[in-house]
Amino acid sequence: MLARRILAGAVLGALAAAPTTVLANSGNGSLTVQPNKGLASATFTATFIDSNQFVVCPAAAVTFYWDNDPGNPIGQASFGSPDGNNNCYASLTTKPPAGSAAGAHQVIGDDGIGDVGNATYTIQKPPTPSPSPTHRPSPSPSPSHSPSPQPSPQPKPSPKAPPPSPTAVLPTPSASAGPGCTSFPPGNPIPDYLVVEFDGLTGDVQSDPFEGWIELTALAPQELLPPRLGHAGFPQAVLTFRTNSLARDLTTGRRFNCVLVSLGPSQSYFYARYVFEHVEMTGPNSFRYDTVYYDYLPRGSDGLPGVEDHGQGRYQLVAAQSGTAGFAWQWVGAGVLVLLGLSGTALARRRV
């Protein structure tokens, strides 16, 4: 089985080097998009499913493409842990590439080891604004010879006090990671706008309140996004940058005391913001951490703020020094222990 997977991955690698399209629905891969339609500026979530009966999910990240074009990737996402049916999932929240026309488009997920999934996302045309109604002057009232009696004014009911701000009970980030980690990042009012700040690095965003930050096009995996945030574990963060201007600074193994992330309004939430403490880069666009503080406000079924579902909390991992091997990371909570740093051979092992 392993030999077949390695051979399939090699064949796909050879095909990607030639000017061709990505194969759709091959191997044991499948793909869903949610929602499956929206405006060109709206976000959607693509979920790749690998149904190979895994004991441990593969280490390789899934690459997502737009319109079957291997030269036009829209992001990457890592697998989480297998579900109860031993299937592996990798999710990416993003939006159509700039300039995409209205109509049906293909979204492809490729795990690089022989499994490819395909789904359709339809970009809708913006609604045509309704014409303004023609204003007609109101007829002048007939003169009255006697004044009409005026009713006694009735007392108006006092307005109800607004619900308390959800941020009033936010957990306070500690100062152990440095001054930059003592508070949450500012709220982000710009729809579908994602920004990140690494302490000590200066990005190219020039507008307040995020001047000097770095713009993103996606944050993954789905477990770090509302509404699953805080309910499905805390995996490594995978970032898709708008540009690669800081790639030379985000090298594997580099550590940061503090990383802040702020997400603007989307179809499923009004905002989401994070404070990651004691961060270590595991690649040019991914990192692990020992503590995360999070705060988000989802949309209700009516599109209004779902204050009763407001999510906030703190999750801490324990980092233990182990000789020269670096940090060994352990989950704390629910009695679950996840050991990272397994060999590629062990990660590719299948259930017979």
SSE layout:
Blueprint: H1 2-16, E1 29-34, E2 37-38, E3 44-50, E4 62-66, E5 73-77, E6 88-94, E7 103-110, E8 116-123, E9 194-198, E10 214-220, E11 237-241, E12 255-263, E13 269-283, E14 286-288, E15 291-298, E16 311-316, E17 318-321, E18 327-330, H2 344-347
Parallel strand pairs: 2-8
Antiparallel strand pairs: 1-3, 3-6, 4-5, 4-7, 7-8, 9-10, 9-12, 10-11, 11-14, 12-13, 13-14, 13-15, 15-16, 17-18
Main sheet specs: 6 strands, antiparallel, barrel
Question: Separation of termini?
Answer: 9 Å
Number of beta-strand segments: 18
Indicate the overall shape.
globular
Uncertain regions: pLDDT < 50 for 5+ in a row?
1-22, 156-170, 319-352
Strand content: 25-35%
**Mean pLDDT reading:** 74
Helical content, roughly?
Answer: under 10%
The spatial strand order of the largest sheet comes to 9-10-11-14-13-12
Order of helices and strands: HEEEEEEEEEEEEEEEEEEH
What would you call the structural class?
A: mainly beta
Query: Count the helices. How many?
Result: 2
**What would you report as the Rg, rounded to the nearest angstrom?**
25 Å
